[in-house]
Amino acid sequence: MLRLIVLLLVLANAAFYAWAHGLLLAWGVGPTQQSEPQRLVQQVRPEAVRVLPPAELQRVEAQVAQAPRPPECLQSAALDPAQVAPLRAALAGWPAGSWSLDPVTQPALWIIYMGKYAGVEQVARKRAELRQIGVSFEALANPDLEPGLSLGSFPSEAAANAQLAALAARGVHTARVVQERPAQNGLRLQLPAVDDTLRPRLDELKPALANKPLRPCH
Known about the structure:
- The chain starts with a helix and ends with a strand.
- By secondary structure, the chain is an alpha+beta fold.
- The protein is built from 6 helices and 7 strands.
- The protein has helices spanning 2-20, 37-42, 54-66, 81-90, 120-132, 157-168; strands spanning 72-75, 100-106, 109-115, 148-154, 176-181, 184-194, 215-216.
- Among the domains are: 72-91 and 98-105 and 184-216, Alpha-Beta Plaits; 108-181, 2-Layer Sandwich (Alpha-Beta Plaits), CATH 3.30.70.
């Protein structure tokens, strides 16, 4: 009886092997063929695909890293009148057409403010507390409010107060709404096409801009 069982197992294994390897397809028996010919048709120049050796891959990556970045348009916020003359002097050596000072009306801005604090250590503690309750914060644009934190900026006092009420429900109790800047008319610096030639010279403008960042043009 045991010999019969062993013989049946050997025959079953042999039959499965023949079925799995398609040896019985001539009799209409075999596994379903897994093929996707439509994918082969969709290939674009498959003969151009090749595996790069490590040395050549590093060379290609270095070439990509050194490729020139496309020019970008940058602009400042509205400038204080006292900033204009120093900025013009800093831009005197820049190529013609690489910059302009355009009239701009900057609306008033309100923020949800926390501060002033005694020092950077207290600011760090407040940041940690805000992270624990999932409240985001951002740097202040008005140096007169430092050291402190902004929990968001808003185009109206009403909008800021509405968000302050929502934050109070989440455990923020020491913040208040303040006007970060009043509405003002002035000039705005625009650099329409900052390329790799001009990017290293952006540092020349930081003193005249009071280290305020240049942002992508709208």
